[in-house]
Amino acid sequence: MIDIKSLNLEELILEMESRNEKKFRAKQLYEWMHQKLARGFEEMSNLPKEMRTLLMERYSYTSLKIARVQESKVDQTRKYLFELSDGNLVESVWMKYKFGNSVCISSQVGCKMGCRFCASTLDGLERSLLPSEMIDQIYAIAKDTGEKVSNVVVMGTGEPLDNYDNLIRFIQLLTDEHGLNISQRNITVSTCGIVPEIMKLAEEKLQITLAISLHATTDQKRQALMPVANKYSLEELLGACRFYFQQTGRRLTFEYSLVGGVNDTEEDARELIGLLRHFNCHVNLIPVNPIKEREYVESANAQIQAFKNKLEKNGINVTIRREMGRDIDGACGQLRRRHSEEQQSGGIRR
Ligand code: SAH
Questions:
Q1: In testing the pocket of ligand 1, which one of 187, 213, 215 has its CB within 8 Å of the most ligand atoms?
Q2: CATH code of the domain containing 297
Q3: Does residue 136 share a domain with residue 20?
Q4: pLDDT tens-digit profile, the chain (350 residues)
Q5: What are the two backbone dihedrals, phi and then psi, of residue 215, each rounded to the nearest 5 degrees?
Q6: Which residue, of 25, 47, 90, 345, is most buried by count of CB atoms within 10 Å of its CB?
Q7: Residue 22 domain-assigned (yes or no)
């Protein structure tokens, strides 16, 4: 069955015309899915009953169930755990900033990239998400909060460039003027650095922000943290980043998770400056969020500050990521893991 919410408007019009439905009906249907954020065909009250019956019989309609919500006591961050139609679980985060509301979504169930400090990848990849399942996370949160979403970051569980075609389609749907009409500039996609896919993405010439998970300044150190670094060297990765900038004119973001005693020394800062000196970029320092399955620890506050200052002094644009929602299993994949562990042991811990 065709997953109807993953079709763009043109495709939907063709699809409906092939069933002898009028163009305006296809537009109404699209509006129900992508503007009124209907949870199913039955809500689509201005479509004729026969059409709704046909839709129900012939098309699949994804919708998420809220399995759990945790709200931070520190800020207004909310972490959602959603259940997909096949019972799999994904996490998304709702963040309120002064400049608008932001949703962080997952692109896969689990992840196969194996970054050492990350909870999402501990059990490997279960499957990739459909475009509709990515966008549903935003729709479900918009419905639940009743507020407007202005920014979307693809920084939850999964490697978005390992789900390339669905990611592109998702961006199309999200930025469509007949849908939520979110500007490309308000979308950020974060990747661990799959070089050929970055090159491909550059050719699409989108105006989205690309964030690269760098985390280390030499191939050797990067390989110890991120298996993907065995496949692509830093030189190749930074070459692809340069190409991305040339093609799109968009400033890159480099994410650098600071891990105590691993990549947070003065020498690391110096090497990072050397690597990025000629880049038009922004560095986002993320104090590592320790997961219980690994022995990594956070850097001391003074160390984090010193690292930041050194970068700044050398003209690199840098921020320390505000640690939103740390009290609610804010790190990628933590909530989903805890939920499954609790289901297995039969009790909810608080
Ligand atoms: N697969 C994508 C998006 C996933 S996570 C990527 O690798 O970029 C978003 C960011 O959070 C990445 O930079 C990731 O390396 C980082 N991250 C994951 N777990 C973390 C943890 N426990 N502490 C700090 N940063 C973490």
A1: 213
A2: 3.20.20.70
A3: no
A4: 999 999 999 999 999 999 999 999 999 999 999 999 999 999 999 999 999 999 999 999 999 999 999 998 888 899 999 999 999 999 999 999 888 999 999 999 999 999 999 999 999 999 999 999 999 999 999 999 999 999 999 999 999 999 999 999 999 999 999 999 999 999 999 999 999 999 999 999 999 999 999 999 999 999 999 999 999 999 999 999 999 999 999 999 999 999 999 999 999 999 999 999 989 999 999 999 999 999 899 999 999 999 999 999 999 999 998 666 666 655 556 677 777 777 666 544 33
A5: 65, -10
A6: 90
A7: yes
Residue 350 lies in a domain: no
User: What is the domain range of residue 274?
Assistant: 65-344
Count of H-run helices and E-run strands, the chain: 11, 14
Nearest Cα residue to 288 out of 336, 235, 216 = 216
Residue pair 113/58 in contact (Cβ under 8 Å)? The answer is no
Nearest CA to ligand 1 atom 3: 155
Do 276 and 292 lie in a common domain? yes
Which atom of ligand 1 sits closest to the CA of residue 226? 15
Question: Do residues 16 and 79 share a domain?
Answer: no
3-state DSSP call for residue 286? strand
Strands 209-213 and 187-191: parallel
Residue 157 CA, closest ligand 1 atom number: 4
Say whether both 114 and 150 belong to one domain. Answer: yes
User: Closest residue (by CA) to atom 5 of ligand 1?
Assistant: 155
Structural domains in the chain (count): 2
Q: Which residues are catalytic?
A: 91, 332
- Phi, psi of 321, rounded to the nearest 5 degrees: -65, 125
Residues 299 and 170 in one domain: yes
In a domain, 33, yes or no: yes
